[in-house]
Task: structure prediction
Amino acid sequence: MPEYVSVSEFVQEVQEDWSSPTTSSFTSKMMSCRNTVYLLEEYGMVRSEVSGGEIAEELEKERRSFQLGMCEVSH
Result:
């Protein structure tokens, strides 16, 4: 996976690329990021859509947890 890049590092990298495009490392870094995203999507670690049923299940779990918590507080 690509390393974490802070905002200041990103800005510095962009400024270096802007001032000297022939020695830019932007293309290789972007390729690395794209490969990482591709692998994450391929192995199902990135989901672009959540079904209505999944949302309903999560809401039901949260509702039950909340109800149990309220029962424990009142007793």
Q: What stands out?
A: Residues 55 and 73 are 27 Å apart (CA to CA).
